[in-house]
Design goal:
single chain; alpha/beta; 8 helices; 32% helix; disordered N terminus
Amino acid sequence: MEKQFDDNLTMAGVDNITVDANNINEYPSLSSTGISLRKAYKGQEYELVYEYIQSKIPSGSSKQLITVFVEPQIGSTFPDIVIVYFDISRAKYWSNTRPNLNKLEFQILHYIFNEKSVAKEQLEVFFPNGYSKSLKLLLEAELIDFKQGYWKTKPLKEIFGIRKLIAVEAKTTNWKQGLQQAFYNSYFASQSYLLLPHIPKTEDIFKQASRLGVGILTTNQSLVKSVLPAQVGKLPKSYVSWLFNEWAWKAKISRNAF
C-alpha cells in the first residue's frame, strides 16, 4: 500500500484550502472524482460568501485540516459554502486505489454502512447494474470486507476522515427560501447554517429554523458563536458525505499538504 502523507506535517499547521470554479485546475487530483463547481458571479451574495470565508473560518491545525468548497454541485443544487474538517491521522495509510472509485461505489458503500452487513441478494435488488465491479473496487480500496457471505464496511475511523461537515447557505434577501435550501443541505452535512447580513426583525425565522434543525449566522459571527446553533447529526449522512471525504483528501494531495 502506498503511503499518502508526510509525517513531518504533524509538526506544523496547514493553511485552509479553498476550492472554487476559478481555481479547480490547481487541484489535478480532483479531476477524476466527479466534482463540479458552479462559477460564482460577483454581487451581494458573492461578497457575503467570500467575506465569511476569509474572516470567520478558522485555520487548520497539524491534526485537523480545513477545506472549503464554494458552490459544489450536489444533485440539482449548489450549496454556497461547504466546510470540511478532516482528521489527517485517519487517512495516513489509505489505499492509492481510492481515486478509482466513482459515485456508484460510494452509494453502495453507504448502503452497506447503513445496513451493517449486506448479502449479495440485497445488492441485486438495490443496485442491479454493475454492483459486482463496484464491490471489487471497494474491496481493492480496503473499504469493505467479505465475511461469511456478507459484505461489511471497515471500521469508520479507518476509512472516513471527516470530523465535521458544515454547509452554509448565504442569502441577502428571501430568508425563507434560504432556510429551505439550508435544510436540504442537511442531507449530507452534519450541520447546516443560513448566513445572513443581518437578522430580520421577526421571531418567525427562529421558529422555522429550529423546526428544520438549521442554524443562523450573520457575517460578524463565527460558527461557534452563531445566533442559533445548528442541530448536529452523525456522519456520514449520505453517500454525498463520502464524496466530500474523497474531495477533501484529494484536494490536500494536490496541494502537497500531505
